[in-house]
Specification:
The chain is of the alpha/beta class. 32% of the residues lie in helices and 16% in strands.
Length: 390
């Protein structure tokens, strides 16, 4: 029954419940200090917001919809996202599905209150939580689950308490939504008229497993787009692993033209303020055939005399000819405490929610990013439409 319902939904985009821009973009503008940017953004209040590739739906619209769900993807598109992300992982029978991580089912689905909880790699235990992997399940079993808002209280002593541990600025746990496979996401987003940003997620199970190697996994992602007849220029394949990028450059050069290196090297000693720590260098990344790099937004920004300005990392990437995408706006909750992890290099300039548009303006106009992942795409779409960005 679920499969028939989902196919009908994907075949008829008009059936999707419309999602309005809502009050958030203007609420953020009104929270800004009075300045020229605020005046310009307010002047666009009555203008239509258009779809733009500058606005990328991060896992859909995860601020208030279960991530990687049909409903979240529809909301992202309705809010003007021209590109939507599917994080790609796999089931035990090697079907590709949209999940942020291979081992996140306990925190993003209702698995713990189903009979499939017994299949988890580490079933629930009090004050320890659970670890449930997509690869613990077949595709048929995966389809039986519902998507829930991301979050967990790992100190909880009951399943109900564990599942209720969702940050208060997000939706509630009781927002069941439909999980989706990678191929289904392609069909849905194609019919909604937008483009694709699939990320190949690092597996948590040992590979290779017979014929299922890391290269076979990377190829399977591309195969789904080729089978659906999607033009390579509509797809930005992503990975944190440069070996995946190298594979695509060799095996799928047309898709690799827009391959995105998600730069997680901050975990391994790179300092965005010190170019001598960039290994490989930006020029070396460009020389290998890479055209897009995507660091977290804090790596692109620093402060100069109290003003937000591009970091040495941003300057080096631009000088090397790399196009920059960044992540993730609207993921930090209220910004009255310096903004948290995503704003760590500019905390003194982040004193409230109005900083969202100050930061976005520097990213767009001074850093020159070509796209911004957001948990609430309306925020970015409003800015891009007002500023005439593609």
């Amino acid at each position: 029954m679920r499969a028939l319902w989902l196919l009908a939904l994907m075949a008829s985009p008009a059936m999707a419940e419309p999602v309005e821009m809502g009050p958030r973009p203007l609420a953020l503008v009104n929270a800004m200090a009075d300045n020229d940017l605020k005046t310009r953004l307010l002047a666009c209040a009555d203008d239509p917001v258009r779809q733009t590739d500058f606005s990328i739906g991060h896992r859909g619209a995860a601020l208030n919809y279960p991530e990687h769900s049909v409903e979240g993807y529809q909301a992202a598109v309705a809010m003007g996202a021209g590109i939507v992300e599917c994080d790609v992982t796999f089931t035990s029978d090697h079907a590709l599905v949209c999940r942020h991580a291979q081992d996140d089912l306990a925190e993003t689905t209702n698995i713990l209150v189903t009979d499939l909880a017994a299949r988890c790699t580490r079933p629930f235990s009090p004050a320890r939580g659970a670890e449930c992997r997509a690869s613990d399940l077949t595709l048929a079993e995966f389809r039986a689950l519902e998507a829930m808002m991301e979050g967990a209280d790992k100190t909880a002593r009951t399943v109900e308490g564990f599942m209720a541990g969702i940050p208060p600025w997000r939706g509630t746990a009781h927002q069941p939504a439909s999980l989706i496979t990678h191929a289904e996401s392609i069909a849905l987003l194609r019919d909604l008229g937008v483009k694709f940003a699939p990320e190949l997620k690092a597996p948590v199970v040992a590979m290779p497993r017979g014929a299922w190697t890391r290269e076979a996994y990377a190829q399977a992602l591309i195969d789904d787009y080729e089978a659906a007849g999607i033009p390579p220029e509509h797809v930005w394949v992503q990975s944190f692993d440069l070996d995946d990028i190298r594979y695509w450059l060799k095996a799928e050069p047309e898709f690799a033209r827009q391959a995105v290196f998600l730069d997680g090297r901050f975990r391994h000693g790179i300092d965005p303020m010190r170019p001598e720590t960039f290994h490989p260098s930006m020029a070396e990344l460009k020389a290998m055939g890479l055209n897009y790099i995507a660091p977290p937004l804090w790596m692109l920004l620093t402060l100069s005399e109290g003003a937000i300005v591009p970091s040495p990392y941003a300057t080096a990437a631009t000088k090397a000819g790399l196009k920059i995408i960044t992540w993730t706006l609207e993921r930090s909750g209220p910004l009255d405490n310096g903004g948290g992890w995503y704003f760590q290099t500019i905390t003194d300039a982040v004193t409230g929610d109005g900083a969202v548009y100050e930061v976005l303006h520097v990213l767009a106009q001074d850093v020159g990013v070509v796209g911004v992942f957001s948990d609430w795409p309306a925020t970015v779409s409003y800015y891009a439409s007002c500023m005439g960005l593609d």
